[in-house]
Specification:
The chain is of the alpha/beta class. It contains nine helices and twelve strands. The protein has two domains: 9-81 and 194-208 and 222-290, HUPs (Rossmann fold), CATH 3.40.50; 85-173, Alpha-Beta Complex (Glutamyl-tRNA Synthetase, domain 3), CATH 3.90.800. It has helices at residues 22-37, 58-68, 84-96, 107-113, 163-166, 181-191, 207-216, 252-262, 275-285; strands spanning 9-12, 41-46, 78-79, 100-103, 116-117, 120-121, 139-142, 148-153, 157-162, 171-173, 196-200, 223-227. The strands form five sheets. It has a three-stranded parallel β-sheet with strand order 1-2-3, with helices on one face. It has a three-stranded antiparallel β-sheet with strand order 4-7-10. Bound molecules: zinc ion (ZN).
Length: 296
Protein backbone atom coordinates (compact mmCIF):
# COMPACT_ATOMS: atom_id res chain seq x y z
CA UNK A 1 0.00 0.00 0.00
CA UNK A 2 1.26 3.48 -0.87
CA UNK A 3 1.05 6.34 1.59
CA UNK A 4 -1.61 8.85 0.56
CA UNK A 5 0.15 12.05 1.59
CA UNK A 6 3.75 13.12 1.22
CA UNK A 7 4.34 13.91 4.86
CA UNK A 8 7.73 12.97 6.28
CA UNK A 9 7.69 11.32 9.72
CA UNK A 10 10.99 9.94 10.96
CA UNK A 11 11.89 8.34 14.26
CA UNK A 12 14.66 7.28 16.58
CA UNK A 13 13.97 4.13 18.57
CA UNK A 14 16.75 3.22 21.01
CA UNK A 15 16.48 0.19 23.27
CA UNK A 16 17.22 1.03 26.90
CA UNK A 17 19.84 -1.63 27.59
CA UNK A 18 22.39 1.07 28.47
CA UNK A 19 23.17 4.76 27.93
CA UNK A 20 23.47 6.33 24.48
CA UNK A 21 26.67 5.14 22.82
CA UNK A 22 28.51 6.64 19.88
CA UNK A 23 27.01 4.16 17.38
CA UNK A 24 23.46 5.12 18.37
CA UNK A 25 24.34 8.80 18.21
CA UNK A 26 25.45 8.33 14.59
CA UNK A 27 22.06 6.91 13.56
CA UNK A 28 20.15 9.42 15.72
CA UNK A 29 21.90 12.33 13.98
CA UNK A 30 21.27 10.90 10.51
CA UNK A 31 17.60 10.29 11.24
CA UNK A 32 17.05 13.68 12.90
CA UNK A 33 18.85 15.81 10.36
CA UNK A 34 17.19 13.99 7.46
CA UNK A 35 13.76 14.72 8.99
CA UNK A 36 14.70 18.39 9.52
CA UNK A 37 15.93 18.77 5.97
CA UNK A 38 12.59 17.39 4.74
CA UNK A 39 10.65 19.71 7.09
CA UNK A 40 9.36 16.53 8.65
CA UNK A 41 8.41 15.38 12.10
CA UNK A 42 10.66 13.27 14.28
CA UNK A 43 9.43 10.85 16.90
CA UNK A 44 11.29 9.38 19.87
CA UNK A 45 10.27 5.85 20.77
CA UNK A 46 11.81 3.77 23.51
CA UNK A 47 12.06 0.15 22.33
CA UNK A 48 11.65 -1.41 25.75
CA UNK A 49 9.66 -4.49 24.73
CA UNK A 50 12.53 -6.76 25.77
CA UNK A 51 12.09 -6.19 29.50
CA UNK A 52 14.71 -8.77 30.58
CA UNK A 53 17.33 -6.73 28.67
CA UNK A 54 16.07 -3.35 29.86
CA UNK A 55 18.40 -1.68 32.31
CA UNK A 56 16.89 0.42 35.02
CA UNK A 57 17.58 4.12 34.45
CA UNK A 58 18.83 3.60 30.88
CA UNK A 59 15.80 5.19 29.17
CA UNK A 60 16.08 8.27 31.40
CA UNK A 61 19.80 8.49 30.67
CA UNK A 62 19.20 8.29 26.87
CA UNK A 63 16.48 10.96 27.06
CA UNK A 64 18.74 13.22 29.15
CA UNK A 65 21.60 12.84 26.66
CA UNK A 66 19.35 13.50 23.64
CA UNK A 67 18.08 16.66 25.34
CA UNK A 68 21.62 17.83 26.09
CA UNK A 69 22.53 17.24 22.42
CA UNK A 70 19.69 19.50 21.29
CA UNK A 71 17.42 16.86 19.73
CA UNK A 72 13.77 17.98 19.70
CA UNK A 73 11.02 15.45 19.11
CA UNK A 74 7.38 15.89 18.18
CA UNK A 75 4.59 14.51 20.36
CA UNK A 76 5.13 12.66 23.59
CA UNK A 77 7.67 9.84 23.83
CA UNK A 78 6.27 6.44 22.77
CA UNK A 79 7.03 3.31 24.80
CA UNK A 80 6.83 -0.19 23.35
CA UNK A 81 5.99 -1.62 26.77
CA UNK A 82 2.68 0.29 26.64
CA UNK A 83 1.64 -1.33 23.36
CA UNK A 84 1.54 -5.00 24.27
CA UNK A 85 -2.24 -5.27 23.76
CA UNK A 86 -1.86 -3.76 20.28
CA UNK A 87 0.83 -6.28 19.35
CA UNK A 88 -1.40 -9.07 20.69
CA UNK A 89 -4.27 -7.84 18.50
CA UNK A 90 -2.07 -8.11 15.42
CA UNK A 91 -0.85 -11.57 16.47
CA UNK A 92 -4.48 -12.65 16.85
CA UNK A 93 -5.26 -11.32 13.37
CA UNK A 94 -2.35 -13.34 11.93
CA UNK A 95 -3.55 -16.44 13.82
CA UNK A 96 -7.06 -16.00 12.42
CA UNK A 97 -5.60 -15.85 8.93
CA UNK A 98 -3.47 -18.98 9.51
CA UNK A 99 -0.40 -16.91 8.65
CA UNK A 100 1.41 -18.14 11.78
CA UNK A 101 1.93 -21.38 13.68
CA UNK A 102 3.18 -22.60 17.02
CA UNK A 103 6.77 -23.86 17.15
CA UNK A 104 7.68 -26.44 19.75
CA UNK A 105 11.39 -26.64 18.89
CA UNK A 106 14.02 -25.68 21.42
CA UNK A 107 16.98 -23.54 20.37
CA UNK A 108 19.18 -26.57 20.79
CA UNK A 109 17.02 -28.71 18.50
CA UNK A 110 17.05 -26.04 15.81
CA UNK A 111 20.81 -25.50 16.03
CA UNK A 112 21.35 -29.22 15.38
CA UNK A 113 19.49 -29.20 12.06
CA UNK A 114 19.46 -25.62 10.81
CA UNK A 115 22.00 -23.85 8.61
CA UNK A 116 23.22 -20.39 9.41
CA UNK A 117 21.45 -17.61 7.48
CA UNK A 118 22.02 -13.91 6.97
CA UNK A 119 20.18 -13.04 10.17
CA UNK A 120 20.47 -16.00 12.53
CA UNK A 121 19.66 -19.64 11.83
CA UNK A 122 17.46 -20.68 8.91
CA UNK A 123 14.46 -22.36 10.47
CA UNK A 124 13.72 -25.47 8.42
CA UNK A 125 9.95 -25.36 8.98
CA UNK A 126 9.81 -28.42 11.25
CA UNK A 127 6.59 -27.37 13.03
CA UNK A 128 4.86 -25.78 10.04
CA UNK A 129 2.12 -28.37 9.66
CA UNK A 130 2.26 -30.02 13.09
CA UNK A 131 -0.72 -28.14 14.51
CA UNK A 132 0.99 -27.67 17.88
CA UNK A 133 -1.10 -26.06 20.59
CA UNK A 134 0.05 -22.95 22.36
CA UNK A 135 1.59 -23.41 25.78
CA UNK A 136 3.76 -21.51 28.17
CA UNK A 137 7.04 -22.25 26.42
CA UNK A 138 6.26 -22.16 22.71
CA UNK A 139 7.10 -19.48 20.18
CA UNK A 140 4.93 -18.28 17.28
CA UNK A 141 6.40 -18.22 13.78
CA UNK A 142 5.20 -16.48 10.64
CA UNK A 143 4.99 -18.51 7.43
CA UNK A 144 7.34 -17.17 4.78
CA UNK A 145 7.39 -17.95 1.06
CA UNK A 146 9.78 -17.81 -1.87
CA UNK A 147 8.57 -14.38 -3.03
CA UNK A 148 11.44 -11.95 -3.68
CA UNK A 149 11.31 -9.11 -1.12
CA UNK A 150 13.22 -6.04 -2.23
CA UNK A 151 13.70 -2.37 -1.48
CA UNK A 152 15.95 0.47 -2.48
CA UNK A 153 17.98 1.69 0.48
CA UNK A 154 18.97 5.34 0.25
CA UNK A 155 22.51 4.47 1.38
CA UNK A 156 23.04 0.83 0.39
CA UNK A 157 21.03 0.81 -2.85
CA UNK A 158 19.03 -2.14 -4.16
CA UNK A 159 18.64 -4.94 -1.67
CA UNK A 160 16.62 -8.14 -1.90
CA UNK A 161 16.02 -11.40 -0.10
CA UNK A 162 14.11 -14.63 -0.50
CA UNK A 163 12.99 -15.14 3.09
CA UNK A 164 12.16 -18.80 2.71
CA UNK A 165 15.74 -19.69 1.82
CA UNK A 166 17.61 -16.96 3.74
CA UNK A 167 15.84 -16.99 7.11
CA UNK A 168 12.94 -19.42 7.01
CA UNK A 169 9.74 -18.90 9.02
CA UNK A 170 10.76 -16.44 11.70
CA UNK A 171 9.54 -15.77 15.22
CA UNK A 172 6.98 -13.04 15.87
CA UNK A 173 6.37 -13.95 19.51
CA UNK A 174 9.11 -15.51 21.55
CA UNK A 175 8.72 -18.55 23.77
CA UNK A 176 8.88 -16.21 26.80
CA UNK A 177 5.72 -14.49 25.41
CA UNK A 178 7.56 -11.29 24.50
CA UNK A 179 6.62 -9.85 21.11
CA UNK A 180 9.58 -10.29 18.79
CA UNK A 181 11.34 -7.12 17.70
CA UNK A 182 10.52 -7.80 14.02
CA UNK A 183 6.80 -7.60 14.65
CA UNK A 184 6.84 -4.86 17.31
CA UNK A 185 8.82 -2.46 15.12
CA UNK A 186 6.47 -2.93 12.16
CA UNK A 187 3.36 -2.28 14.29
CA UNK A 188 5.05 0.70 15.98
CA UNK A 189 6.04 2.39 12.73
CA UNK A 190 2.47 1.92 11.51
CA UNK A 191 0.92 3.32 14.71
CA UNK A 192 3.36 6.26 14.71
CA UNK A 193 2.64 6.86 10.98
CA UNK A 194 6.36 6.75 10.26
CA UNK A 195 7.24 7.28 6.59
CA UNK A 196 11.06 7.30 6.67
CA UNK A 197 13.30 4.96 8.64
CA UNK A 198 16.94 5.98 9.06
CA UNK A 199 18.79 3.58 11.37
CA UNK A 200 21.95 1.54 11.86
CA UNK A 201 23.00 -1.10 9.33
CA UNK A 202 22.77 -3.82 12.00
CA UNK A 203 19.09 -3.90 10.95
CA UNK A 204 19.75 -4.05 7.21
CA UNK A 205 19.40 -7.86 7.21
CA UNK A 206 16.06 -7.64 9.09
CA UNK A 207 14.48 -5.11 6.77
CA UNK A 208 13.04 -7.63 4.30
CA UNK A 209 11.35 -9.47 7.18
CA UNK A 210 9.77 -6.22 8.29
CA UNK A 211 8.69 -5.33 4.74
CA UNK A 212 7.15 -8.79 4.44
CA UNK A 213 5.19 -8.39 7.70
CA UNK A 214 4.09 -4.87 6.80
CA UNK A 215 2.88 -6.13 3.43
CA UNK A 216 0.86 -8.96 5.03
CA UNK A 217 -0.80 -6.46 7.34
CA UNK A 218 -1.54 -3.99 4.53
CA UNK A 219 0.59 -1.22 6.03
CA UNK A 220 2.02 1.59 3.88
CA UNK A 221 5.49 1.10 2.39
CA UNK A 222 8.36 2.74 4.28
CA UNK A 223 11.41 4.44 2.89
CA UNK A 224 14.66 3.01 4.33
CA UNK A 225 18.19 4.30 4.83
CA UNK A 226 20.81 2.43 6.88
CA UNK A 227 23.85 4.13 8.36
CA UNK A 228 27.24 2.42 8.72
CA UNK A 229 28.05 0.67 11.98
CA UNK A 230 30.65 1.92 14.38
CA UNK A 231 33.13 -0.87 14.93
CA UNK A 232 35.37 -1.20 17.98
CA UNK A 233 39.05 -2.12 17.92
CA UNK A 234 38.35 -5.85 17.87
CA UNK A 235 36.13 -5.48 14.80
CA UNK A 236 32.83 -5.96 16.61
CA UNK A 237 29.81 -3.71 16.39
CA UNK A 238 29.84 -1.23 19.23
CA UNK A 239 27.23 -2.26 21.76
CA UNK A 240 25.85 -0.68 24.88
CA UNK A 241 28.15 -2.80 27.00
CA UNK A 242 31.12 -1.39 25.15
CA UNK A 243 32.43 1.62 27.04
CA UNK A 244 35.08 2.55 24.46
CA UNK A 245 33.16 5.52 23.08
CA UNK A 246 30.73 6.79 25.69
CA UNK A 247 28.99 9.98 24.69
CA UNK A 248 29.26 12.60 27.34
CA UNK A 249 26.16 14.80 27.74
CA UNK A 250 28.41 17.53 29.20
CA UNK A 251 30.38 18.00 25.95
CA UNK A 252 27.72 17.52 23.26
CA UNK A 253 29.42 19.44 20.47
CA UNK A 254 32.54 17.24 20.49
CA UNK A 255 30.49 14.05 20.11
CA UNK A 256 28.11 15.57 17.54
CA UNK A 257 31.00 16.69 15.33
CA UNK A 258 32.79 13.33 15.63
CA UNK A 259 29.58 11.48 14.65
CA UNK A 260 28.98 13.96 11.82
CA UNK A 261 32.45 13.19 10.39
CA UNK A 262 31.79 9.48 10.75
CA UNK A 263 28.75 10.00 8.49
CA UNK A 264 31.09 11.31 5.76
CA UNK A 265 29.60 14.81 5.83
CA UNK A 266 31.15 18.13 4.88
CA UNK A 267 32.94 19.69 7.89
CA UNK A 268 31.04 21.94 10.28
CA UNK A 269 32.65 25.42 10.32
CA UNK A 270 34.81 26.21 13.39
CA UNK A 271 32.64 29.17 14.45
CA UNK A 272 29.82 26.80 15.45
CA UNK A 273 29.79 26.97 19.26
CA UNK A 274 26.37 25.69 20.35
CA UNK A 275 24.23 22.65 19.60
CA UNK A 276 21.58 24.94 18.04
CA UNK A 277 24.17 26.33 15.61
CA UNK A 278 25.35 22.78 14.91
CA UNK A 279 21.83 21.63 13.96
CA UNK A 280 21.22 24.66 11.74
CA UNK A 281 24.42 24.13 9.81
CA UNK A 282 24.06 20.34 9.75
CA UNK A 283 20.53 20.60 8.34
CA UNK A 284 21.79 22.74 5.46
CA UNK A 285 24.84 20.59 4.76
CA UNK A 286 23.31 17.12 5.18
CA UNK A 287 23.78 14.94 2.14
CA UNK A 288 22.70 11.31 2.43
CA UNK A 289 24.65 10.55 -0.77
CA UNK A 290 27.85 11.16 1.20
CA UNK A 291 27.09 8.53 3.86
CA UNK A 292 29.49 5.61 3.31
CA UNK A 293 27.80 2.28 2.50
CA UNK A 294 30.15 0.28 4.72
CA UNK A 295 28.88 -3.05 5.93
CA UNK A 296 31.16 -5.19 8.10
ZN1 LIG B 1 9.52 -25.76 15.58
Amino acid sequence: MRRSNNQYIGRFAPSPSGGLHFGSLVSAIASYVDARQHFGQWILRIDDIDQPRTKSGAAESIIHTLNAFGFKWNNSIQWQSERISQYEQVIQELKDRNAVYICACSRKEISKIAASGVDGMIYPGTCRDQGHKENSSRAIRIRTNSERIYFSDRVFGHFEQNLETLSGDFIIRRADKITAYQLAVVVDDYLDQVSHVVRGADLLMSTCKQIYLGGLLGYPTLDFAHTPLVINKSGKKLSKSDRAFPVNPDTPLTALIAAWRFLGQQDITPHVQTVEEFWDEATTKWSIQKVPADYP
